[in-house]
Amino acid sequence: MNSTLLVGVCLDDDQALELEAFAQACGTAPETVVLLVEEGLLSPAVESPAWRFGGEELARARRILRLQRDFEANLDAVAVMLELMDEIDRLRGVLRRAGIPAP
Q1: I need a surface site. Which of 23, 29, 48, 77 has the fewest CB within 10 A?
Q2: In whole angstroms, what is the distance from residue 35 CA to residue 13 CA?
Q3: pLDDT digits (tens, 9 = 90+) for 9-55
Q4: 79 near 43, Cβ under 8 Å?
Q5: Of the candidates 44, 86, 54, 91, the residue with the CA atom closest to the CA atom of residue 67
Q6: Angle between helices 30-38 and 19-26 in degrees, nearest 10
Q7: What is the largest CA-CA distance in the chain?
Q8: Whole-angstrom Cα distance, residue 38 to residue 51?
Q9: Rounded Cα distance, 35 and 50, in Å
């Protein structure tokens, strides 16, 4: 029987990944990450002296890449999908705070 050991690290702004390591963690090329930043879909946690990305951006980048792959979506479509997903999350939080179970 084969087994795989997964090791994870929680990232915050103090432990953020540099561009190359971030791209590798996303399973993409650094040029793709640069494009996502230029399009406004990702924001580095630290910009100077070099871009560094935290855990929230890692999750967001993986979501972006998954949307592109699964739906063959361009970046404009991905941006709309992300806005809708963020709004759904926000509304679920409102329901939760109001004591209403979210669907």
Answers
A1: 48
A2: 21
A3: 566 556 789 999 999 999 999 999 999 999 999 999 988 889 999 99
A4: no
A5: 86
A6: 100
A7: 48
A8: 12
A9: 16
For the chain, give the number of residues: 103
Q: Position 64: which residue type?
A: I
Count of C-beta atoms within a 10 Å radius of residue 93 = 11
Which of the four pLDDT bands, split at 50, 70 and 90, describes residue 103?
confident
Q: Considering the entire predicted model, what is its pTM?
A: 0.80
pLDDT at 3: 73
Please report the pLDDT score of residue 34 as a whole number: 97
| Closest-CA residue to 46 (of 8, 21, 12) | 12
User: What does DSSP assign to residue 15?
Assistant: G
Q: Cα-atom radius of gyration of the chain, to the nearest Å?
A: 16
Strand partners, 52: 18, 46
